[in-house]
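Handout, section 4.2: multi-component inputs.
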Amino acid sequence: MDVIKSKETQTAYKTNEDLLSRFMASSCDMGFEDEQMRKFLRDIVISFILAGKDSTSTAFTWFFWLLDGHLHCKHLIRKEFSMLVTSCHHTHPLNLTFDDLKKLNYLHAALSESMRLFPPIPINSRLTVDDDILPDGTYVGKGWFADYSAYAMGRMERLWGSGCREFKPERWLDGNGVYQPLDQYKYLVFHGGFRMCLGKEMAYLQMKSVVVAVMHEFEIEVVGGGGTPERMVHPPYSLSLVLSVKNGLPVRLKKL
Ligand code: HEM
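Output:
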């Protein structure tokens, strides 16, 4: 609350580009009293922090686990961002801009593919407020839970074809290597419809910039071996609200 109050005294929040300033600037005509507005902003910030922290860190963990078992993909990711840095005339990947990061098609595909197999939020639930009939004719009564598993859906042959259990970033790319988003209801990693994740684009942006920064500086080796096709048959997961790697993911970093 103190941070919000101190920002209110700086008129610069209307032009500042940090997230809180943006929320403040876009909420000022909502008709709230001062204190109501502060609570509203506090709740938005807390929900963004809660929703965005464990989800992205879980996604990173599986991503690096999978890369360790798919060295060709690791090589393609490094090649893609190194070429981008050169073509944009930057001296360091940390100088890549928002628009530059959007050009990392292969990395975007590899992140999507990793989350298809290991969705950070593996199971999700809804409680019905009224009787309803789903589009396929299934009856759902008032007060019932309707659950879905993004983990199971990401491994269904009917949806992803015979190679559904393989890590193949290429399935997200067209013939020119450009990333092709798929139907949000086939890929429910970020949920779908009105209550879809509000931080999806931010999550990709954050993950791309972190992957590039880390991989530019270090070679990452998973202690005990990463997600080779053989190890992927029985992945070491631990199921909670998020899909963690069981006992964490110890890695060795070698400075490049
Ligand atoms: C890989 C990372 C992420 C994944 C897989 C993910 C996934 C999801 C999912 C499945 C939901 C729906 C939850 C539900 O309604 O039951 C959700 C909601 C939400 N996410 Fe994310 N999320 C990620 C990152 C982020 C980030 C970085 C932010 C913000 C900085 C964020 C903000 C939100 C918010 C505010 C909602 C609630 C939307 C609403 O109820 O209308 N998420 N996310």
